[in-house]
Amino acid sequence: MRLNTYITYKKLYADNIERDLILRAKNTNTLDLWCYDELDAVVDITGATVFFTVKNKPSDTDNDAVLKKDVTSLTNPTGGNTIITLTATDCASLLGNYLYSIKIKMATGEFYTLAEGNVVFRKEITERTS
Predict the structure, then answer these.
(1) Residue 99 CB-density burial (10 A; 0-12 exposed, 13-18 middle, 19+ buried)
(2) What is the pTM of this model?
(3) Cβ–Cβ under 8 Å, residues 81 and 46
(4) pLDDT band (50, 70, 90) for residue 128
């Protein structure tokens, strides 16, 4: 799944961050994250940290999150790209509807919410492994 996200140093495009995701429980899920500015130029995310958080409800604290991933080893930071990998173990106990957000902390210390919305973890149709 590819997520094109837009960062601007003036404002974040609020209309671009609402995205719903459908992922598979007990599977490896990969989110390919691309960052652009308001002119569609690639944003260099070198030195950034990407936070992926899944919660039951917005009032839950980050400590109460059902899934938290911090990505510091970025795939192609000068190209504005990284991958968020959710392993089968990460998703093993998740089934149903949750809320998620993807937030980035730039090397300069600025924070941006890149994507947020509902995430549904669906049961795998095929359960056999051999």
Answers:
(1) middle
(2) 0.85
(3) no
(4) confident
Percent of the residues in the chain that have a pLDDT greater than 70, as a whole number: 87
Domains of the chain: 2-122 (2.60.40)
User: What is the model's pLDDT at position 112?
Assistant: 87
What residues contact residue 116 under an 8 Å CB cut-off, 6+ apart?
17, 18, 19, 99, 100, 101, 102
**113 has a pLDDT exceeding 90:** no
Integer Cα distance of 48 and 39 in angstroms = 21
Reported for 53-56, long-range contacts at CB under 8 A and 24+ positions apart, including other chains, are 53/100, 53/101, 53/103, 54/94, 54/98, 54/99, 54/100, 54/119, 55/98, 55/99, 55/100, 56/98, 56/99
